[in-house]
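Need the bound structure for NAI, inputs here:
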Amino acid sequence: MMLQKKKVLFIGAGSMAEAIAAGIVQQNKVPPNHITMTNKQDEQRRVQLMKDYHVISLPIEETEVQEADLIVLAMKPKDAASAIAALAPKLLPHQLLLSVIAGVTTTFLEGMLPLEQPVIRVMPNTSSTIGESITALTPGVAVSADHLQLARTLFESIGGVTVINEQQMDVFTGIAGSGPAYIYYVLEHMEETAKQEGIPPELAREIVAQTVLGASKMVLETKTSPRTLRKKVTSPNGTTAAGVDALKQHGAGMAFTEAILRAKNRSTAIAKELEMLHS
Ligand SMILES: NC(=O)C1=CN([C@@H]2O[C@H](COP(=O)(O)OP(=O)(O)OC[C@H]3O[C@@H](n4cnc5c(N)ncnc54)[C@H](O)[C@@H]3O)[C@@H](O)[C@H]2O)C=CC1
Ligand SMILES: O=C(O)[C@@H]1CCC=N1
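Answer from helper R.:
Posting the output first, comments after.
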């Protein structure tokens, strides 16, 4: 695929940039010497990235922005505006900007960039590291079918890809961007209880992780609803009924709904804060 010939520049070299780069390098989609990862400071981190993934890693001031075909913005929202302002005058019209920053809209990006600069808002998650992300893309107004295909191919190398509209992006962020953390939280608690009840630590971890993996795969591979699958596990007056009763009693269902909605609202609020600061 044409992606093999493209050069990818990451501006911001934190956990998300690393998760994406690790995925694309492992899947051989982009040769590591076509990937440059930059940050503001932290040379030690750059050395580590070069060692681990054989990518090029430079401080932002030493980076030849114009050599890149795809530019991934991967800094925290608070650093986004100054990074984009510094980047804007250096951009060439063909360069495709991919922003993974939570709460940064295509409209905000377009407002800070040269007219007609192609921009895609992207929300991956850290399971990119092992090729198991689910990533949403929202193309901006100047994005061609070829650009979108290129972005799709890039992110397909690290998991599933879906194209959604901007209104859906905040809730997608609350579900899939932040979602791994909710599941880790569940795993932490299951593991802790297993240990308290006398299961050795290593085994506790394997048991809970495989239980969650198996349940997820059941949904995807049997194409059956979680509700139907749950009912199949639940014998009348059995152990599962007792366990699920406890979940209901403690409001676990509502807790997940609330988690998603709060994360969604935070994404919307970040967008508003940025607009207020930079309009
Ligand atoms: N961590 C996650 O699970 C996910 C994160 N995201 C988004 O990815 C972005 C980055 O998140 P993390 O990787 O967790 O953050 P992080 O704090 O680990 O990394 C941010 C990086 O950006 C660099 N940076 C800041 N300003 C810069 C500038 N002007 N020029 C060059 N580099 C600059 C920092 O030096 C650092 O390397 C955030 O906007 C977040 O919303 C999106 C999806 C999932
Ligand atoms: O916590 C955050 O803001 C980022 C965005 C999605 C996951 N992590």
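Comments: The chain has eleven helices and eight strands. The first strand starts at residue 8 and ends at 11.
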